[in-house]
Amino acid sequence: METGAERRLLEIIAGLIAELRPRERGAVTLDSRLERDLGLDSLSRTELLLRIERGFGVSLPEQALVSAETARDLLLLLQHAGPAPAPAPVELQRLTQGTSVAPEEAETLVEVLDWHVSRHPGKLHIHLYGEGAATEDITYLALKQGAQAVAAGLVARGVEPGDAVAIMLPTGKEYLFSFFGVLMAGAVPVPIYPPARSSRNEDHLRRHAGILANCRARLLITVPEAKAVSLLLRAVADSLRGTVTVAELAAHAAPFQPIARAASDLAFLQYTSGSTGDPKGVSLTHANLLANVRAMGKSLQVGGEDVLVSWLPLYHDMGLIGAWLGSLYYAMPLALMSPLAFLVQPARWLWAIHRHRATLSGGPNFAYELCVRRLQDEQLHGLDLSSWRIAFNGAEPVSADTLEAFARRFAPYGLRREAIMPVYGLAECSVALAFPPLQRGPLIDAIEREPFVRGGRCVPAAPGDPSALRMVCCGRPLPGHQIRIVDGSGREVGDRTEGRLEFKGPSATSGYFRNPAQTRKLFHGEWLDSGDFAYVAGGEIYITGRVKEVIIRGGRNIYPYDLEQAAGNIPGIRRGCVAVFGSPDPVSGTERLVVLAETRETDTQARERLIQEINATAVDLLGIAADDVVLAPPHTVLKTSSGKIRRAASREYYERRGTHLRPAPTWLQFLRLAASAALPELRRSLRATLSLLYAAYAWAVMGLIAVPVWGIVAVARRPRFSRSVCHHAAILLTKLTGIRVAATGLENLPRTAHVLISNHASYIDAIALSAVLPPGHRYVFVAKREFAHSWVARSFLEGLEAAFVERFDAKQGVDDVARVEEAARGGASPIFFPEGTFDRQPGLREFRLGAFLTAARTGLPAVPVGIHGARSVLRENTWFPRLGAVAVSVGPPIVPGGSDWSAAVALRDQARSEILRLSGEPDRIA
Question: Is 740 in a helix, a strand, or coil?
Fold first, then answer.
């Protein structure tokens, strides 16, 4: 088959996709799967075959509707359908625009690099900023060649596939070459952060010894100054053969062929703990990383025309995956500078965005706050940020005040508020988990303080409420990922109720490397515990706080244990009586590092010396001084009965009393803490018990009503009578269970036949519709054919005159829709849930076309219906109902503009837009 035929076929498919989903971007290839990749249901494939036949002047066999799974299959069928006329010439520019710029079939990171090298080896990959004004350009070919040299050196030193190789290097080409060199050698890179000062290398490496021991690192690639401590590290990590520099690895490099790895193999280990006690290495495979990069790209509509600027450290997941690997995958030029360059002169970041006309860039909240507070007008003269279309804010708690201050401060320099995007992610999900819609700008939810503090209820505050808490929206889960919010007993909570955020998806880790105890804590069945508190409102996620005791300061995770131990060793400080915690700072928008230490010293000069020594210790261990050092009398630091530091309680004590800490008697402290802990626990237990009792009661009521109703409907076989029975049974069920169902817009229902179209969020949607729709009208539910395979479901639905539609067999699906059209012409009003299914994630999914073709071909009006609240009452994959309210809103009828395919597509778009408004659901395909 000629290349022209292939191009023509792809053009026809792309044209149909553009009609169905005009906002979707992405190339169509011969290996694109028609249903899974392109989202073509049976009716859409029927239209596609008609267009192919017209476009090529051939007649395709009927089996093409069923047998063709990819565009390549269609091409093979065209070969046997007779000669096709020569396709119309296609302009080169058009082909270039339709050509994929991303390796969609690649299964590993090395395959991604090879894909780019094979197509554009000399294309700029990274514009690297060095010391001062020095810069260096790195192409895809240069990256591969540098990595091959490192890989050859690793193999020559005995590194084998699957071995861990630690990388402790600053931002630079040596880091880039090392990371991919380790991958090419078939090994697993383990990034660890480099020392802030060369004089502290030995101490720094001592603190990383736990990580090296846990991952069984074979080699450590580092700077020359750190090589002297190789013997020390070998004593702790017996697997370590030594330390080596990039220059040594590449010195005698021989020709090297990368060792093949699979998608399921480890790509790298991301350690989330700096503690030597129990390091947690997040295991991430090539499949995990590529799934995350692809999901981010789809959500952000990333393309080769984008440019990214980053100063984020490459040993951190946001800088490594979000910036570097994301730019590598999508062939985006990346302007890369070191974190130190940004911290010393924050203006460098913004001027790099200006200079490169960058479209994507971001950082933690403190970076935006730093720019607001540190940069003067004279440093910004001539700055133009108008190219910046997405400004990520993530990796630490996002401050609403910082978002607004940054938007105001840099609006005169072309920054659009809509570009600012708070995001949410964590290493256990590779890096990203939730993004808000593009070009919306920050969404802030002001909630009442008292209900939130007392019971986790996130009630919208009245405008101008001075005590309101302001929560920042982080959007919706990435494509293919799911999030749920659960209470202390692991049951899902309703909207605007705080709980623990759990997630799952293709980017999620399989666990912590060689740490089964922490892995068991991470997983709750198929769900992973994020360690964060959150709530959902309007289908979007709001992070309220961290369950973990990690302190996030200046974009880095700080773990209290090491500093507590070191400070306790200072003469004059009571050992084991030091608490280190983070306390929110409303001024800086980040966390303050607080050290609360007990001492018996009362002399002023002696106390000042202790404060200085604690700060010096903090700088040595963490690279930063404490924001506040509080010296307190003995028995001030709160502990458990077993002697463990109660950091959360100590933080609360500090925030309540400030630096004037005078401990109450032990017995009084105990009583106060016991009372403060008992009441919330009692409330949680009471809520859990009441929820369990309600669920049991609701199912008992359901059983008492459902059994006789099923018998009447299945035996009577009188649809009109059965619809009336179900109507009154649904009303009785909702009243007895306390589920409030309210309907508006019922006057919009025509008295003659029509096509009713509703969103689908829960199994109780059908109950809600049965309760509010007039029972005398001939409504016919359109159900998936899987229900027909169950005798119980089939007997009931057939008694109601339901129509079954096949979702997976394309030919059968077309025939089933034709029968629905016949029923509609006979006076029935079919009820469609055009999403076809539902899940726990809020949001309106893509609509299948069956309902709209039925309306267009029969000339019947389509009536849009929005259901709101059903998902909170009963979610997918759970049989645990909750009290709630369900609103059913009926919109005005929409008359089809014709009877053909185009009219059906236009009708779908109109109806979907109206259902979005009526249901209040977010748009999952926006």
Answer: strand
| CA–CA gap between residue 761 and residue 759 (Å, rounded) | 7
Q: At what angle do helices 791-799 and 666-716 cross, to 10 degrees?
A: 60
* Token pair 């960058």: residue: 358
Cα torsion through 896, 900, 903, 909, rounded to 10: 110
Closest of 327, 366, 329, 330 to residue 349, by C-alpha: 366
Would you say 551 and 627 are in contact if contact means Cβ atoms under 8 Å apart?
no
Q: Give the pLDDT score at 696.
A: 92
Q: Which residue in 496, 479, 488 sits closest to 544, CA to CA?
A: 496
Q: pLDDT tens across 159-214, in order?
A: 999 999 999 999 999 999 999 999 999 999 999 877 554 434 444 555 677 889 89
End-to-end CA distance of the chain: 37
Which domains does the chain carry?
3-98 (1.10.1200.10), 109-339 (3.40.50.12780), 345-422 (3.40.50.980), 427-546 (2.30.38.10), 551-663 (3.30.300.30), 695-919 (3.40.1130.10)
Burial of 915 (0-12, 13-18, 19+ CB in 10 A): buried
Point out which residues pair with 243 in neighbouring strands. Answer: 220
Residue 393's alpha-carbon distances to 364, 406, 422, 424, 589, in angstroms, are 5, 11, 5, 9, 12
User: How far are the Cα atoms of 711, 716, 806, 813, 865 from residue 768, in angstroms, in the given order?
Assistant: 21, 23, 24, 27, 12
Confidence at 71, pLDDT banded by 50, 70, 90:
confident
For the chain, what is the total number of helices (H) and then of strands (E)? 31, 34
Query: How big, in percent rounded to 5, are the helix, strand and coil portions of the chain?
Result: 45, 20, 35
Q: Are 821 and 860 in contact (CB under 8 A)?
A: no
pTM of the model: 0.72
How far apart CA 28 and CA 5 sit, in angstroms, is 14
pLDDT bin (cut points 50, 70, 90) of residue 234 is: low
Concatenated DSSP letters of 11-53? HHHHHHHHHH-TT------TT-BTTTTT---HHHHHHHHHHHH
**Rounded Cα distance, 832 and 782, in Å:** 6
Q: Which of 908, 923, 915 is nearest to 866 (CA)?
A: 915
Per-residue pLDDT tens for 677-731? 455 557 667 877 888 899 999 999 999 999 999 999 988 889 999 999 999 999 9
CA dist., res. 802 & res. 717, Å (int): 12
Contact in structure between 422 and 474 (CB atoms under 8 Å): yes
Helix (H, G, I), strand (E, B), or coil: what is residue 796? helix
Answer whether residue 97 shows pLDDT above 50: no
- The span from the CA of 372 to the CA of 362, in Å, is 14
Instruction: Calculate the average pLDDT of the chain.
Output: 85
CB atoms within 10 A of CB 317: 29
Q: What is the pLDDT of residues 21-61, one digit of tens each?
A: 776 656 788 888 877 777 777 667 777 777 887 787 777 76
